[in-house]
Design brief:
The protein is mainly α. It has five helices and no strands.
């Protein structure tokens, strides 16, 4: 099939990103398992506190598959199917901007989740059992920095993906000439 050049570039970019993120997700799963071994159940760390300690770190593995592999794979497949069904390609600008917003923001979101997971786990391993105090010390106690980091990554994810999806939706109303 004859793809537009900007689709070829985007497909190559997404597929490389997907492969890298699959490897990262697998490594993060191993890291979680090894970290969980260092924080075993005990009298000082009963089951409920253990779950509270490990849940943020446990979620990183699955979110890395979702944000880093499944969503980009879905976008790639969606764009491919649109062409196969005879719809015109989306423009180079929304695809390029959407890609440049989404992919770095996906990495940023995963890094934030990893930071939060290890912040809580290492804090409990250091003897801090007050989760409110751990939450307060997250991002060095700066709620503004925390809000900015989460706000920027989530906004970039949403705007990047939204640009691609809205552009694709508009092409579904047209038939390729």
């Amino acid at each position: 099939m004859n793809f537009p050049e900007h689709y070829r570039v985007a497909f190559r970019t997404y597929l490389r990103f997907i492969v890298i993120m699959l490897i990262v997700a697998l490594l993060l799963g191993i890291m979680f398992q090894e970290s969980a071994k260092k924080t075993p159940f005990s009298a000082a760390l009963p089951a409920g506190v253990h779950i509270e300690t490990m849940i943020n770190l446990a979620l990183v593995h699955g979110h890395t598959f979702l944000i880093g592999a499944l969503i980009p794979l879905g976008v790639t497949w969606m764009l491919y199917l649109g062409l196969m069904l005879g719809h015109p390609p989306i423009g180079e600008k929304p695809l390029g901007i959407g890609t440049r917003l989404y992919l770095p923001a996906a990495v940023g979101a995963i890094i934030l989740m990893l930071y939060k997971g290890y912040h809580f786990q290492l804090g409990v391993r250091a003897g801090e059992m007050d989760f409110r105090a751990l939450d307060q010390s997250y991002f060095f106690g700066s709620h503004a920095l925390r809000a900015a980091a989460y706000g920027i990554t989530h906004t970039a994810l949403a705007v990047g993906l939204g640009m691609i999806l809205v552009s694709f939706w508009k092409t579904l109303k047209k038939q390729a000439s």
